[in-house]
Structure formats: C-alpha cells, structure tokens
Inverse folding.
C-alpha cells in the first residue's frame, strides 16, 4: 500500500511539477519586481478551437519576454458560453497574475444576456489584441445551389435562409444577424453547434443553407473543396474569384469583425499593464509564433502595442449601433 | 495505402518514438487508475512538455497515454468500485461484485484481455473506416444524434427488469440534472441559482466519483469489515483463467468492440455511452440477465472491449473535421494544433503517416498496458484486503483530490459529496445508478439535437423518419421498447398455460 501511494505520488508530482512547481525554482527573481509567480491566462473556450490554439502558442512566447522567469499557464473555462471565464477574470484580483482572452463582439452579447451582473466590460483593463482581428465570409456546401448574394436574396424571398451557428453568445451569431440585415435577407439561425468546425460541417451536411465563419477556420475546408464562399466580407478579397464587400457594393460588411482581445481585471496598476503589454507585443512578433501562424494558415497581422482601449472603443460603438439587431 | 500504413509502424520503432510510447503508456496506466484524473488530465499536463518534440514523437506519447488509460481505470473500477475514468464506471457494475466474491483476479484478467482484443478490433475497424470517414461523419446530423441518445436511454432502462418504475425515476432525475446550466441553443442559463459553477451544468466526472466511489465508501463504512468478503481468494488466483474467459466470450468482445467503434465515431457521444451501451446490450442478449450486477464476467468484458475499441474510432471526427468526440479528444486536438497539424478534411490526406503512427501507438499501448497492468495488479489487489477503517479514508481522500483536480474547482468536491449521499441512498433503496448516469450523459445531447432538429424541420417530427439513418434508429428504438413488453406478455401467457418452464439459466 505504501508502495502504491508513493508510486502515484511520484507520478503525479512529476507530471504536475512541470507546470506547478517551476516558479519555486526561479532563483534570479529580484525582490518586488513583477512578476513573482505564475500568471494564469483564462481562455473562455474549450480546448481545441482557434481561440485556444492562439493563447497556447502565445503564452510560452510571452513568458520569454517577461522581466522575471515565470510560467504563463493557460486555463480553459468554457462554461456558460464563455461567460464564466469572463466573470472569473472580472472578479479576480488586479495584480497581473490573472489575465484572459476575450472574444469580441461575443462578450458584449453575453453581457446583455446576463444583465450586467456577472461582469462589466467597460471597467475591465484592456491590454491588446492577440493579432489583427478577422472579417467573415458566407460559406455554403460545395454542392449547394447557392452561388452568390443574389441567390441568397432569392431564397429569402421564399423562406428564411438557414444559418448554422454556436449559441447567441458567439461572435458568428452576431455576424449572421448583422450581415442578414445589411444584405437584406430573412435569416433563421440553427444554434447549438459547439464551435466553428462543427457548424461548417453542419452546413456541408445540409443542416443549414450556409454559415458565417472566418477565413482561418475555412482554409482547410476550402482546400479540400468541401465548401465554397458565397461572399467574402474582406474589403478586397484575398482569395481570387470570390466577390468581396466592395464588389458586392456593401462595404459595411467588412466592419463585421471578430477581435481576440487580451484583458485584465478592472483597476490593473499601470506599471504592470506596461510590462504585460510589452511582453504581449514581443510575443505576437516572435519568429516562432509568426512561423506557426503562417504554417497553420492564420491571418496574423500584429497590431500596435497596447491597442486594447482603442479597439474596444470601436467595437463598443459598433455593438451599440447593431445591438437591437443582434439581440432581436 | 499499405506502404503508408507500414511506414507509420516503422516510424514508431524509432528509439525516440518508442520510448515516448512507453512513457505514455505508464503515465496512462497510472493516471487511468487514479479516480478523477484520467486521459484528459494526463494529456493536458503533457501537452506543454511536447512543445519542443517532433510531431511524430508527441503523437506516440499521446497514443501511449490514450491506449493505456482504460486498463488503468478498470483496475480501480473492479477492486475499489471507483471508476478511474468515467467510461470505466460500467466495469464497476459486475467487476466489483466479483472482487467482493474474491474473484478480483479473474475480473482483472478478463478486463486485460478484453482491453487488448478490443483495441485490436477497434484498430482494424478504423483502418477499414478511414477511407470512408467523411461520409460517416456527414451521416450523423441533429435528428440522428437525438435518436441515438433516445436509443441509449431506452437500452439502459429496458434492461432493468422488475424495477421499471425505480429505473424511470432514476432516469428522470438524471435528465433533470442534465438540463442544469447554460444552453447554447437558446443562450439561457437554467437552474443555476445564480451560481456560476453551475453554468457548465452538473460536472460529469465529480458526479461520477461521488455516485460510485463516495457512495460505496459510505456503504462500506456502514457495513464494516473489508472490501472482499472472502479474503483468502483475493491473492489473485485466476488471472490467467480470467484472460481465457474473454476468449470464451468472443461474441461479447466482438459486439462490445463494434459498439465502441460505431459510438466512438459519432462526436459528442463518447466513451461512457459506448461502455454502458455495450454492457446493456450484452445483458439483453444474455440468457441470464439477472446475474448481471452480481458478478457476471461478461459484464466486465463487454464495457472494457468497447472502451478500447472506441479510442481508435474517436479519432475519426477529431482528425477529419476537427470535432472532438470527448474531452480527451478536445485536449488531443489542442496538441495537434500546437504541432502545426490543423485537423480538417485535409488532415487525412496531408498527415497520413502521422495518423497511422498514432493508430499503431494506440494499439500497441492497449496491448502492452494489458500486460503491464496485470503485473501491477498484485500490489493493487491487496487493497481489497484492507480493513475498511483504513481503506475508506484513503479512497475518500484520493477521490476528493481527483474531483478537485479535474478543473481545480472546490465546488467539484461539494458536488462529489452531494452525489455520494445520493448514490448511497440509491444503493440502500435499490435504484439504478446506471440509468441515472446514462441520462446525465445523454441528456444535453438529446436536448440540443432535438431543438436543432426542430429548427431545421420547422417543427415537424417527420425529420426523425425521413432520412434512412434516422429511420433505422427510430425502428430499433421502437423494437427495443416493444420487445420486452411482448415477451413479458408471451411469458405470462405461457405460465398461465401451465408450461411452467422459466426462461433463465446458463
């Protein structure tokens, strides 16, 4: 019996030690200089998707550029469509040891749904974007009769166009609502899919007529010829032969974006904010990270350091404008 | 095809890949055996370590872990009635009664060979299925998911003969628990009482630890003595005999493996359903269903064969579409992305060598873990000889730490304690914990896919009969409901006629 527990203990501490014990080993930590211990990086999504991957690649790179050698530990808190992760982040101590990724504009929708009790996006400390945000595209199955926006409008004249999506808290859900309004079609959203891959497959399967997704997510589906784009919301399409927001004559579509923000709890001291922003800025430009993004086919456009407040102001104004449409 | 298949195997024989495979297997066995840890935790802890490794070696490590977890989990399920991982809970049902009868060795031997055989059959099925993987994933839409969930519920509730009402109550209670939390169909949170912990629903693993481990410990301390009633036999006699038992029940192995392969390939359903479904189907097919739950060796073989078979096929939706079939697969997907392999339709074309290497690693680990697990059984088996006064505090501590470790939430421990109390009452008053667990697992899938189906069909139920796969599932479900009623009526008729022959006996 002693043998058993010792064996379990050794195995456990061996594995856990890698992530948990390491800060105790950092000898050269100058007293009083932030950071002194591990930093938790909350991911308000499950493991797997793009959001999770971005943070898991950025975290080790950020570690390299912090003044002291500590770990940045990603923690998935997917509950409540990401609401729990946001609420946890909002309520944690503003000491720089808890930061989190925030999916915008999805977070605004969540805030409205929860009646502002769980968190307040206005009060949060916004650091920066993980990399430039992305626009969306309307995607249909490769064998779909729908070719372009005109076909969608024709379909809408007969019955509402079906879109597959995650729940109302998802940024893709907001994108569908706004895009339908701009294009002028009736939409019916089939909610409940667990993530972007899931609702793209649902569209291929025929659960819905189309879906709205980012090009990063669509790349591998496009290359395998399983889907087509009916419209690309980029101002100028990066894919040849696909109608873009400009050529459709609806430039407003290119304003529908998803931003992957990094945030900290309200009241984060300015000196800590500077340290985190500097590390984050270097991490998104780190050669390994850039190479990874290129290989995986992600749109990777690092933005100016500490652009969080600026981006959030624009996003808040955009959400305010479309609020009634999204929440309808 | 064949050359890629072979080069995957040869790649695994490289010293680095091989050693990572073996390390992964040991980690998997140990994490599998500790209740509440399991493959998800093991992979999550290992991912950061693979950052600097070659993708192939990282996959060998992951394959090693995933292949060995079920064997580790079955050892504690049988000896302590504490499933190491959720799918192993099905092995408790008969494995633990066997351990109580002093036949723990027999059960573990059977589990080991069922694990190895299930793994091999699972691999063969996956190799046959990979070329048509995409078609399979595309067949299963919301109506099929809903019907599959209903089928799962029907299968378990019809097996509880003579306790129909209590099973229905347990199932209804399980469904009530399953609907707690945030619904991402409607974007509304239900029954959470403003508590953010409940936004994610009733967490499955802490609930399972409570229902099985804690409940059993309460039961034991009330009863006193030691786990094994007949302590002389626990010295693991009959392990070899147990291994042979599996070969005597090849039908059960094949059925379990096929159930595991099919259920595993359907995302979102997962191993727990596979193992319980295999268990229930074996019980239904048996001539002596009443012996299940009291120590029938087939009750160990069926779920264990299914669990290992499903490991291979769970890779299909994960790799082909990036849709993880379970929490473990979701973490594994994170590992793939970290190593620059973007799961999706292209994955099956671009990374074939790695995929076959991974499948080989899974199979090799299943087989090796079965043998290594047998070597470790002797020290583990002595646990059942311990006095309850020593055992209970140890198991309760390990279970509670495991429950906390799942996602580092103290609320998990509270949930485990509450479910422990409920589980004990269920043992005491003879309610089926199996039905409750299956309802808890399938509830969210059933609810979500029902609403999605209704959205797709504009509220028409005809969607459940229009497509051929859903029609087949509907027909099977109806037959399963009707069959026991008809056979009961016929049986009663016979008895009334005075033939007097009772149907049981094997």
């Amino acid at each position: 019996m002693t043998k058993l527990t010792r064996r379990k203990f050794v195995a456990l501490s061996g594995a856990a030690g890698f992530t948990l014990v390491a800060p105790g080993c950092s000898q050269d930590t100058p007293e009083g200089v932030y950071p002194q211990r591990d930093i938790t990086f909350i991911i308000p999504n499950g493991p797997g998707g793009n959001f999770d991957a971005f943070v898991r690649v950025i975290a080790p790179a950020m570690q390299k550029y912090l003044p002291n050698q500590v770990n940045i530990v990603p923690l998935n808190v997917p509950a409540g469509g990401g609401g729990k992760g946001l609420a946890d982040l909002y309520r944690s101590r503003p000491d720089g040891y808890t930061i989190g990724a925030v999916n915008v504009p999805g977070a605004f929708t969540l805030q409205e749904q929860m009646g502002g009790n769980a968190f307040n996006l206005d009060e949060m400390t916004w650091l920066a974007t993980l990399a430039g945000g992305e626009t969306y595209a309307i995607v249909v199955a490769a064998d779909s009769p729908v070719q372009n926006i005109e076909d969608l409008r024709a379909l809408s004249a007969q019955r509402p166009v079906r879109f597959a999506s995650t729940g109302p808290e998802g940024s893709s859900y907001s994108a569908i609502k706004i895009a339908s309004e701009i294009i002028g079609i009736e939409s019916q959203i089939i909610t409940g899919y667990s993530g972007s891959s899931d609702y793209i497959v649902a569209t291929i399967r025929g659960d819905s007529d189309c879906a709205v997704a980012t090009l990063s997510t669509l790349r591998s589906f496009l290359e395998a010829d399983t889907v087509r784009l009916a419209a690309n919301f980029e101002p100028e399409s990066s894919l040849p032969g696909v109608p873009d927001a400009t050529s459709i004559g609806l430039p407003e579509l290119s304003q529908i974006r998803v931003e992957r923000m990094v945030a900290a709890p309200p009241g984060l001291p300015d000196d800590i904010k500077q340290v985190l922003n500097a590390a984050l800025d270097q991490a998104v430009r780190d050669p390994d990270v850039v190479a990874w993004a290129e290989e995986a086919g992600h749109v990777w456009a690092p933005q100016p350091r500490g652009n969080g407040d600026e981006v959030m102001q624009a996003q808040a104004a955009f959400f305010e404008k479309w609020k009634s449409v999204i929440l309808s | 095809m064949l050359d890629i298949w072979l080069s995957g195997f040869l790649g695994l024989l490289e010293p680095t890949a091989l050693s990572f495979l073996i390390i992964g297997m040991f980690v998997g066995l140990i994490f599998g055996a500790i209740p509440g840890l399991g493959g998800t935790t093991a992979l999550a802890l290992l991912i950061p370590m693979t950052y600097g490794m070659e993708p192939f070696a990282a996959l060998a490590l992951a394959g090693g872990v995933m292949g060995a977890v079920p064997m580790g989990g079955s050892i504690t399920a049988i000896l302590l009635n504490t499933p190491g991982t959720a799918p192993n809970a099905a092995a408790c049902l008969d494995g633990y009664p066997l351990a109580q009868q002093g036949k723990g060795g027999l059960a573990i031997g059977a589990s080991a060979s069922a694990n190895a055989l299930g793994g091999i059959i699972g691999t063969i099925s996956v190799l046959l299925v990979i070329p048509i993987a995409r078609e399979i994933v595309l067949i299963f839409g919301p109506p099929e998911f809903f019907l599959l969930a209903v089928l799962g519920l029907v299968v378990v509730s019809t097996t509880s003969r003579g306790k129909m009402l209590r099973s229905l109550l347990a199932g209804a209670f399980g469904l009530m628990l399953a609907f707690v939390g945030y619904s991402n169909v409607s974007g509304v949170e239900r029954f959470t009482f403003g508590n953010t912990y409940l936004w994610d629903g009733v967490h499955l693993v802490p609930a399972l630890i409570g229902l099985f481990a804690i409940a059993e410990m309460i039961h034991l301390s009330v009863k006193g003595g030691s786990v094994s009633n007949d302590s002389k036999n626990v010295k693991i006699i009959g392990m070899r005999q147990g291994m042979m038992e599996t070969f005597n029940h090849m039908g059960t192995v094949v059925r379990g493996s096929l159930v595991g392969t099919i259920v595993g390939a359907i995302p979102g359903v997962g191993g727990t359903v596979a193992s319980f479904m295999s268990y229930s189907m074996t019980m239904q097919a048996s001539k002596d269903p009443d012996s299940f739950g009291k120590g029938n060796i087939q009750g160990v073989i069926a779920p264990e064969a299914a669990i290992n078979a499903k490991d291979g096929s769970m890779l299909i939706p994960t790799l082909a579409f990036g849709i993880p079939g379970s929490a473990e697969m979701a973490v594994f997907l994170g590992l793939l992305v970290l190593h620059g392999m973007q799961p999706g339709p292209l994955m099956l074309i671009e990374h074939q060598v790695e995929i076959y290497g991974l499948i080989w690693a899974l199979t090799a680990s299943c087989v090796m873990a079965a043998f290594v697990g047998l070597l470790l059984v002797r020290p583990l088996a002595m646990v059942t000889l311990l006095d309850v006064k020593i055992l209970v505090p140890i198991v309760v501590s390990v279970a509670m730490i495991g429950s906390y470790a799942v996602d580092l939430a103290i609320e998990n421990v509270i949930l485990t304690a509450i479910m422990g109390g409920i589980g004990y009452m269920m043992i005491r008053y003879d309610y089926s914990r199996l039905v409750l667990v299956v309802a808890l697992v399938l509830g969210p899938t059933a609810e979500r896919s029902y609403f999605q189906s209704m959205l797709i069909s504009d509220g028409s139920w005809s969607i459940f009969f229009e497509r051929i796969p859903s029609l087949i599932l509907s027909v099977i479900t109806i037959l399963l409901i009707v069959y026991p009623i008809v056979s009961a009526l016929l049986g009663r008729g016979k008895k009334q006629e005075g033939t007097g022959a009772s149907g049981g006996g094997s």
The first strand of chain A starts at residue 39 and ends at 43.
